[in-house]
Specification:
- The protein is mainly beta.
- It has no helices and 9 strands.
- The chain has one domain: Jelly Rolls.
- Strands 1, 2, 3, 4, 5, 6, 7, 8 and 9 form a 9-stranded antiparallel beta sheet that branches.
- InterPro entries: Cupin_2 (IPR013096), RmlC-like_jellyroll (IPR014710), RmlC_Cupin_sf (IPR011051).
Length: 105
């Protein structure tokens, strides 16, 4: 059992060049809190696992394959394995979201 507060976790720059806080990282799942500054984006990429995006704060756009979704707090977007995805924060708003990968990678 482990208890912590998201605000207490240290953000590090991830492989895509954005700030990320790791909540869980093991073979069953990987959960990270990604923090995009105003206008910042994660370029199109794909991973071999299911990805769930859960928006915590801000506004932006999540693109899965060829479909774009405007997102805000409490929105959820699902992405199946091996499908192109990208994320962009609005120019007027930072974007904070959980990136949940199952199984973990």
């Amino acid at each position: 059992m482990k208890h912590f507060n998201l605000e207490d976790l240290k953000a590090e720059i991830n492989i895509r060049g954005v700030h990320a806080k790791t909540l869980v990282n093991h073979k069953n799942t990987t959960i990270k809190n990604l923090l995009l500054k105003k206008g910042e984006s994660i370029p199109t990429h794909q991973v071999p696992v299911d990805v769930t995006f859960f928006v915590l704060e801000g506004k932006g756009q999540i693109t899965i394959d060829d479909e774009s979704y405007p997102v805000k707090a409490n929105d959820i977007v699902l992405c199946p394995p091996n499908v192109p995805m990208s994320v962009k924060a609005d120019d007027e708003s930072p974007l904070s979201f959980l990136n949940i990968k199952t199984p973990g990678i």
